[in-house]
Amino acid sequence: MPSNATKRLYIQTPDPITEPVQTSTIVIIHPGSFNLRIGRASDPLPLTIPHCLARKRVSPTKKSSSLIFRPECVHTEAKQQFKVGLKQAEETVTTRPTSTGEYRQTSSCKQLYSYNHGVKGQRTEVICPQCWTKTDNQPPIIVGQEALYVNPADSYNLHWPIRRGQLNIHDGPGGTMTAVLADIEAIWATALQKHLDIPLKDLKMYKALLLIPDVFNHKHTKHLMNLLLDRLGFGGAILHQESVCATFGSGVSSACVVDVGDQKTSVCCVEDGISHRNTRVTMEFGGSDITRCFFNVIQRSGINLRELDPQSTVDCLLLQEMKETYCNLDQDDGGIKEHSILIKRPEQHIVKYPIRLGDEGILAPMSLFFPDLLTLHGDLAHVQKRSEGDPEDPHDEFYLKMTSRETKLAKKKENSDNKDANESNIGQFDDSTYQPQMDEDSNDNTESLQVVDNQKSGRGMEMEEEPETESDSEVQLMGIDQAILHSIDKCDNDETKKKMYSCMVVVGGGMMFEGAQQWLQYRVWVGMPPQYRLMLETMDVLTKPKELDPQMVCWKGAAILACLDTTQELWITQKEWKQYSVRMLRERAPFMW
């Protein structure tokens, strides 16, 4: 029997389920920084609602920060950083040939400025049909789309419980862990009752599959599981990583998954349903940052939309709509064109701006490859870190690793002391005196190492293989093409790298631009090591796998995973969670916890 120091929890896995999987009783939840996608596994597509809520303000003075755009991009080096990124993007656009073999000519910034600078908004007679959300009854919370259109003059705070892919813990009102989880619970509960017609009292008959980021926070994930099983009361739950679900939704077994969301971009290599831990990298920029970049670029061309306020939620939504309308990565679409920008604010007359745009539509999306355009600074790129441990899991991998090391050091010291004693007493005892003791020590040492080897098998192997230092725990902010090259380079062997270069899957809503597939393929091909170009037969970049909306691919893959026979052994029940808590994730999670 192993000693107490090396005991490990072995939880009996449930017997395989022989009955057909009831897909209508499985709820797939994919929470994002901007949108929540939720639906039954039997649904063809999920319901999508803004992942936010408005809470009635207790004190008139305690206003929360409800900005969609990040405020931390204003710093002393921002202007210089923007110029550097803009120059890099312009040079890249002009040096890549078009489909006809010609080179794109840059539009005249001075010409655009001289025209746009004098343009004034024209007030039309058309009133915007969008209305402010009615708050006459003073509801305590308002969820989703209605929350976005609560009049700023009303006494409500807009809360976004997830920012940059993680729980939005901050110093302002509603920024504590308890408050953030309460917001998530309110949003999910409203979606379940109002849109899926599932009463909360019936959730014990349902199961939930929750999608989590590739680079996840252990404590946050534990709180979300507790929210599902304890507070909402689902009968069972399971976690799956977004990248793995993306491959299932795309119908490929192995791929380098590129997930460009509203506020984060993550890259990860997935092989046969396993997310390689060393290849995961997440950067804190996404579609909303491209929108902010587009606003900065058009201002450079003299466009002054006086009615717009980037500090307003409604105006941020309008800017996102403008980005989706005017931005693309089509190398053949060049030249100066005339457009009409409509400023639509709830219950107000629409204002029209006749403007001219040149390369602004392609330069803003190029910020995905040249993040200097986004004027970001700070520690904004992350890789997967070890768990810091949890008091509810006393025999976690970190504990086992430390105790195993201490056992080996103690044995080494004991053997060294015996050796010194043996040398100091030569001639006083014959060899037979020490032989039994040496054999006993050898057996003990072998038995101890055998226990350690058992702990290294399976889920413990990855932790033992990790270096002792955290030198690789931080990476620099980089363009999406460099992140792909970095991720693939972390793969173990050439055969795996070849697989990843052969198939790249792009999901999420932050890179839905015409021509994005060609640009990404071009940038990776130019940057990859030359030897792999000779090895590759094809390089597929899937931006609309199976003709699905890239925003729905991860959710669809999770719905497929939830119905597999192998998944049925991984569900964590309410009873098991209450009894074992986070230890269940170490034993049942389909990835290295």
Model description:
- This protein has helices spanning 78-95, 109-116, 145-148, 177-195, 218-232, 242-250, 287-300, 313-326, 360-363, 397-424, 431-456, 460-465, 480-489, 494-502, 516-527, 530-535, 553-562, 574-580, 583-588; strands at 26-31, 35-40, 47-50, 53-56, 122-127, 141-143, 156-159, 162-163, 166-167, 207-212, 236-241, 254-260, 265-271, 274-275, 281-283, 337-343, 349-357, 381-382, 503-507, 540-542, 572-573.
- The chain has 593 residues and is an alpha+beta fold.
- Among the domains are: 78-132 and 286-379, ATPase, substrate binding domain, subdomain 4 (Actin, Chain A, domain 4); 397-465.
- The strands form five sheets. Strands 12, 13, 14, 15, 18, 19 and 20 form a seven-stranded mixed sheet that branches. It has a six-stranded mixed sheet with strand order 3-2-1-10-11-21, sandwiched between helices. Strands 6-4-7 form a three-stranded antiparallel sheet.
- Strand 13 (265-271) and strand 14 (274-275) form a beta hairpin.
- Helix 10 runs antiparallel to helix 11.
- The longest helix has 28 residues, at 397-424.
Describe how the helices and strands are arranged.
Blueprint: E1 26-31, E2 35-40, E3 47-50, E4 53-56, H1 78-95, H2 109-116, E5 122-127, E6 141-143, H3 145-148, E7 156-159, E8 162-163, E9 166-167, H4 177-195, E10 207-212, H5 218-232, E11 236-241, H6 242-250, E12 254-260, E13 265-271, E14 274-275, E15 281-283, H7 287-300, H8 313-326, E16 337-343, E17 349-357, H9 360-363, E18 381-382, H10 397-424, H11 431-456, H12 460-465, H13 480-489, H14 494-502, E19 503-507, H15 516-527, H16 530-535, E20 540-542, H17 553-562, E21 572-573, H18 574-580, H19 583-588
Parallel strand pairs: 1-10, 10-11, 12-19, 19-20
Antiparallel strand pairs: 1-2, 2-3, 4-6, 4-7, 5-17, 8-9, 11-21, 12-13, 13-14, 13-15, 15-18, 16-17
Helix pairs in contact: 6-17, 7-8, 10-11, 13-15
